[in-house]
Amino acid sequence: MCPEDYFTRLRRTKEECRPMMRQEMVLYAQKHGISEAARQYRTTRKTVRMWVRRWEGRESLVDRSKRPKRIPCQTAPGIEESVAEQRRKTGYGPHRLADWLERHLGLEVSPWTIRNILKRKGLMVKKARRKTCYPAHWAWETGKPFRLLQVDVKDVHDKAALGTERTTHLVRAGLPRYQWTAMDAASRVRFLAYSHSLTIDHGIAFMVLVVDWIRSYIDLDWEIEIQTDWGVEFGGDNPDAIERLNRKYLQVRGARLCRYPKGRKGYNGRVERLHRTDDEEFYKPLLLASRNTEEYLDNAFQWQVFYDLYRPHYGVGMNGLTPMEKLRELGVDVPDEFVLFPPVELDRIATAIVLQAGYDVPAKYSKPLPERLWTT
Fold this sequence. Notes:
Elements: H1 6-12, H2 18-32, H3 34-40, H4 45-56, H5 77-90, H6 94-104, H7 111-120, E1 148-155, H8 159-172, E2 178-184, E3 190-195, H9 200-217, E4 224-228, H10 239-250, E5 255-259, H11 269-286, H12 293-309, H13 323-329, H14 346-357, H15 363-366
Parallel strand pairs: 1-4, 4-5
Antiparallel strand pairs: 1-2, 2-3
């Protein structure tokens, strides 16, 4: 008796070898009988009898097509040819092609039907795999200060965190809604800026300002990696666009924009956790006291200075040190003025910075960086 039943053995057998297996069972049945063959091959007598009947009728032992004889909803051949022809002419995908057919030919065809037609006719081109924008880095992997900058944007208009009263005041007072944050993963030193909207110009301006500020105080021998999410304000998810931003704005400054994997916010966990601290220690007690943008930015500046110079931290490796104390412990001796980065309103200066930053680079950064910068 076979160790496996007939249908299990059939599933494991290649399609071209199945007729030979069935022929073997049919010959056994002709010699020993239907019931004995069913016991031997561990299947039903009905199955054995079916293949014996086909064998004796000189029919093929190959599986027959299970295609229905009649398909009421099948797309007409003429429409399929029109879909294929317009695909070759336009190169459009299913959704765009469906709109094109309706507008120009008066044909209403579902995008999913078009997709199936294109697949059958071999007109669906497999997309080339995009280049990855990471590997990303965990904060504890970078022991050097300002080797990794975690950058993110916080929407201050968060009713769940701040409540209706504060978010309503934010709107009525015309205060900037978005907080831009750059944090050194090693020391927790952070810099702030604000804007009323999110655009790529704001993102470029903020990164340029922060990198120039850091390098004006600290002579780093390594590249600054700016790790962000996949938001459009940081170049979106197009690797070519990100590479252009790097070449035009950041490489000349000894910096590089990179991404963490989608859905893995833990890679930027320190700046993400910082947003909760901002809510609890800055926005909840001081947002209602900010009557206009000038007071709002002034309060943000005082909060940033307090955070970097006086607020002790108890996260991994901090042991109660302030960010500036941790920075000096890591071997970077800078004056306290280093943390006096002004939380500017990016809407007023972003366009000017973007237009100048890619070309009017200070001489200190326009020279090629040391070779070791790109190999460390």
